[in-house]
Design a protein that fits this description.
Layout: E1 7-11, H1 16-27, E2 31-36, H2 39-50, E3 56-60, H3 66-80, E4 85-88, H4 103-131, E5 134-139, H5 143-146, H6 152-172, E6 177-184, H7 190-193, H8 197-205, H9 215-226, E7 237-240
Parallel strand pairs: 1-2, 1-4, 2-3, 4-5, 5-6, 6-7
Helix pairs in contact: 1-9, 3-4, 4-6
The structure holds NADPH dihydro-nicotinamide-adenine-dinucleotide phosphate.
Length: about 250
């Protein structure tokens, strides 16, 4: 197994892509901590992972809360003595055209997606630096690279995550901690299920592989970045999108 003895934290791991990432890392031997605002989802995922024989910890943590995040990381360090992998996956959308976008819609999305990633990165920074090892994997989006109608807040948050990834990678490189991002395209989850049909049809036309991605496609990229095979890769963004964005 590729992650035997590792401890991984997945934010927003109760459902969707985060859940699949947690399951995939667990199947490769990692013990898993799941944070989610919905405690029932976090516990359900952990129960399934526990049946694989891994240790789990499910916590109700809102990544926007700096102090709560810091305290929850300390709890992981007390329980496991280390943290090897952080997957910053928690994310939300609140779409609206710029003309109609409210301050609340802007703030909410920036707060979960970008500030949440900052909070979690900052909370693990010292421990991973001291360990002289660690993996941080940030879930961005192709929308942070190409922008999208009605998603100014989301696009800005995800572009910010890509920039934060590069800066954290530079600051942590000498400590043998790698920081990379994954930019998924159009992945089949509850987040995309709620998009209007005409928007979905439009996006399908833009996918050269002419199909939606599955959470597993993102989870596999995450597993690679978490594994020893990715030892010498840092500051990068891996696009997982069926060919929508080719840079
Ligand atoms: P989902 O909405 O299915 O899952 C997101 C999870 O994050 C939910 O469990 C949610 O909890 C949790 N969450 C939301 N806010 C917080 C918070 N403040 N603190 C902790 N947890 C929180 O989304 P996806 O699985 O589709 O997306 C996962 C990530 O992938 C996101 O960052 C998203 O932006 C990104 N992404 C997704 C794409 C897609 O096509 N689906 C494409 C590109 C990127 P709750 O259940 O309570 O809402």
């Amino acid at each position: 197994m590729r992650l035997e003895g590792k401890v991984a934290l997945v934010t927003g791991g109760g459902r969707g892509i985060g859940r699949e990432i947690a399951m995939t890392l667990a199947k490769e031997g990692a013990d898993i901590v799941i944070w989610d605002v919905n405690p029932a989802d976090a516990q359900n995922t952990c129960a399934e992972i526990g049946s694989l024989g891994r240790k789990t910890l499910a916590e109700q943590v809102d990544v926007t809360n700096f102090d709560a995040v810091d305290a929850a990381v300390n709890k992981i360090l007390d329980k496991y003595g280390k943290l090897d992998i952080l997957v910053n996956n928690a994310g939300i959308t609140k779409d609206n055209l710029l003309l109609r976008m409210s301050q609340q819609e802007w703030d909410a999305v920036l707060s979960v997606n970008l500030k949440g990633t900052f909070n979690c990165t900052k909370a693990v920074f010292r421990a991973m630096s001291k360990q002289r090892s660690g993996r941080i994997i940030n879930i961005a989006s192709i929308i942070g690279i190409i922008g999208n109608y009605g998603q100014a807040n989301y696009a800005a948050s995800k572009a910010g995550i890509i920039a934060l990834t590069k800066t954290s990678a530079r600051e942590l490189a000498a400590r043998n901690v790698t920081v990379n991002a994954i930019a998924p395209g159009f992945i089949q989850t509850e987040m995309t299920a709620k998009l209007p049909e005409d928007v979905k049809a439009q996006m399908m036309k833009a996918i050269p592989m002419a199909k939606l991605g599955a959470p597993k496609d993102v989870a596999n990229a995450c597993l690679f970045l978490a594994s020893n095979e990715a030892d010498y890769i840092t500051g990068q963004t891996i696009v997982v999108d069926g060919g929508m964005v080719m840079v």
